[in-house]
Amino acid sequence: MKILALESSCDETAAAVVEDGRKILSSVVASQVEEHKLYGGVVPEIASRRHCEAVVPVTQKALEDANLTLADVDAIGVTYAPGLIGALLVGVNFAKGLAMASGKPLVPVHHLRGHVAANYLTSPELTPPFLCLVVSGGHTHIVQVADYTKITVLGQTRDDAAGEAFDKAARAMGMPYPGGIELDETAEGGDEKAFHLPRPHVDGSLYDFSFSGLKTAVINLIHNADQRGETLSIPDLAASYRCAVVDCLECNFVRAAEDTGAKTLVLAGGVSANRLLRRRLTHTCAERGWGFFCPALPLCGDNAAMIGSQAYYEFLAGHTAGNDLNARSEMPMEENN
Ligand code: ATP
Ligand code: MG
Ligand code: FE
Predict the structure, then answer these.
(1) Can you tell me the ipTM of this complex?
(2) Is residue 295 within 6 Å of ligand 1 at its C-beta?
(3) Which of 98, 81, 102, 86 minimizes the C-alpha distance to 15?
(4) pLDDT in tens, 201-257
(5) H or E stretch including 157?
(6) What is the distance in A from the centroid of ligand 3 to the CA of 198?
(7) Cα separation, 61 vs 58, whole angstroms
């Protein structure tokens, strides 16, 4: 079964064709990041406009690259939640038009379920059940994936998401938006023990996260050094900060695995590209005899191939939509359409 999938939840306009949830026939991503960089973050109104301009050529290219026409695909998948509402609406309405014109089924996909599915494209041997740490620009969740469309959230962030925490600290260190990748690269050349930063815990919750205090601690460090006329080593600061964030993520994730008896651990979302997080979990899982999976680097960030993969499993579960499908800016991962 071939699915043409669309993604427009944030600042990437993407289209892809995926076969049987596992094989990428084409994947096209048009990123707007250079334009949003000028403003230090994603400007929703600009994002919507750029999606409107890009959605047709990006979809055409995805079909061309797969050597297919609309008539050859079996269904249309689309991200409908969560994300910027104006951005989501572009993909949803375009997908509705395609489904109506072609008479193919329309399959709505939750963006974070798509991030999880990036692993099905990377690792053919991976099947549920598993425990997954979803770490992205807007979300930080520990989820039990009992089956492809049966998901339970065990813990989540109470304030900033992991990606947001990396981007905000990177900005304070003078790196352009989105600074997560540059902070990670810079940290490779630093000493993670150079600065003492907190490892915040959420009182009364074993699996929830809180990153805003950690972010404030690093901003204060930089501010106080500035006032004293001192310059801090950015590589050391980046390494110390990255280590603190990864400690928090790993601690709760491993605890959840121990408590639930999970034997397979999976990473998903943009922050799953983080070098230290990947190394740590590779090591920890090997030590404990757990399986460990993470998406191939090009599939960590937003793309439509991951949406095409999840759409296949949603379709098999009967989760299709009619022409009254609407976008939603927020939606729990647990909820089925
Ligand atoms: P969401 O998926 O929650 O809706 P999003 O789609 O904007 O948010 P993603 O595309 O999944 O987010 O991930 C982008 C985030 O990942 C950014 O915050 C970016 O800085 C971060 N990121 C990317 N690579 C790395 C890295 N190597 N280390 C740390 N953070 C990274
Ligand atoms: Mg993006
Ligand atoms: Fe995302």
Answers:
(1) 0.99
(2) no
(3) 98
(4) 999 999 999 999 999 999 999 999 999 999 999 999 999 999 999 999 999 999 999
(5) none
(6) 27
(7) 5
Model's pTM, two decimal places? 0.98
Closest CA to 160 of 86, 227, 210, 108: 210
CA of 149 to the centre of ligand 1 (A): 23
Pairwise CA distance, residues 122 & 306, whole Å: 10
> How many Å lie between the centroid of ligand 3 and the Cα of residue 236?
28
- Closest ligand to Cα 51: 2
Residue 337 — very low, low, confident or very high, per pLDDT cuts 50/70/90? confident
Q: Which two tokens stand for residue 314?
A: 């949603």
Nearest CA-CA partner of 172 in 222, 230, 116: 222
140 lines ligand 1 (CB under 6 A): no
- Please give the distance, rounded to the nearest whole angstrom, from the Cα atom of residue 11 to the centre of ligand 2: 5
Q: Residues 6 or more apart from 322 whose CB is under 8 A from it? A: 106
- Strands, E, within 185-284: which ranges? 264-268
Closest CA relative to residue 23, chosen from 103, 122, 171, 146: 122
- Can you tell me whether residue 209 is helix, strand or coil? strand
Residue 180 counted as an annotated binding residue: yes
Judge residue 196's burial from the number of C-beta atoms within 10 Å of its C-beta, 0-12 exposed, 13-18 middle, 19 or more buried. Answer: exposed
Mutation probe of ligand 1 site: the residue of 43, 181, 297 with most atoms within 8 A of C-beta = 181
